[in-house]
Write a structure and sequence with these properties.
By secondary structure, this protein is an alpha+beta fold. It has helices at about 5-20, 25-55, 70-80, 80-85, 105-120, 150-155, 175-185; strands at about 65-70, 90-95, 100, 125-135, 140-145, 190-195, 200-205.
């Protein structure tokens, strides 16, 4: 959703609340939740556009240090808590903690964008699984949600402004593009695959 569409929807919701002093409480709360959601979407869009512009201008620098994967995932999940609550999606994290090398703030930006995408594509009250795995030559974070996407979407999903066939109305196709730029510039790799009716984003850290 564009900022123009989002602000228009906010205006409509506010008008419904303000112009009807006798509106039922449950309906009022519904409008307020919609307003909160749209404000969150607009803030997310503006922030990601600003971050992408920094990459385009080559003004990004990374402060690479040892990062606890548990801390990275805790902060990333916290960033998408509002959207998770609105869709009543459960996030299940499996695996032991370990250390990776990277820029904590930028990696949180990337991972939270991928989790946000998984929530948007998930059905209400479904479960997203996050697996932490450490191997001899690399470490991995897998973000898994139910449902599969088309071959066309898989080939284009990391392109800027690309919206998949089943993307939500709120999606603008920026988050995954930014996530890929961050991970690759921080010496990592991201890939996507679909199998057993699941979509799996695999982030590898070397």
């Amino acid at each position: 959703m564009s900022t123009k569409q989002g602000s228009h929807h906010i205006t409509i919701c506010l008008d419904n609340v303000l112009d009807n002093p006798y509106i039922k409480e449950d309906k009022r709360n519904e409008f307020l939740i919609d307003i909160k959601k749209e404000i969150n979407n607009i803030n997310f869009l503006i922030k990601n556009l600003l971050e992408l512009s920094k990459f385009d201008a080559n003004t990004i620098s990374f402060d690479r240090k040892n990062i606890s994967v548990n801390s990275l995932l805790d902060e990333s999940v916290k960033r998408v808590e509002l959207l998770r609550e609105l869709k009543a999606v459960n996030i299940k994290i499996n695996g032991e903690d370990f250390m990776i090398k990277g820029d904590f703030n930028w990696e949180v930006e990337a991972v939270s964008n991928i989790i946000k995408n998984a929530i948007e594509y998930s059905k209400e009250k479904s479960t997203i699984e996050i697996k932490k795995e450490k191997y001899s030559t690399y470490s991995s974070i897998k973000i898994i949600n139910n449902g599969m996407i088309s071959k066309k979407d898989m080939d284009n999903i990391f392109k800027r402004f690309y919206k998949g066939k089943n993307s939500s109305f709120d999606s603008v196709g920026i988050g995954l593009s930014l996530a890929k730029k961050i991970i690759e510039n921080d010496f990592g790799k991201i890939s996507i695959e679909c199998k057993n009716n699941k979509t799996i984003f695999d982030i590898k850290y070397f």
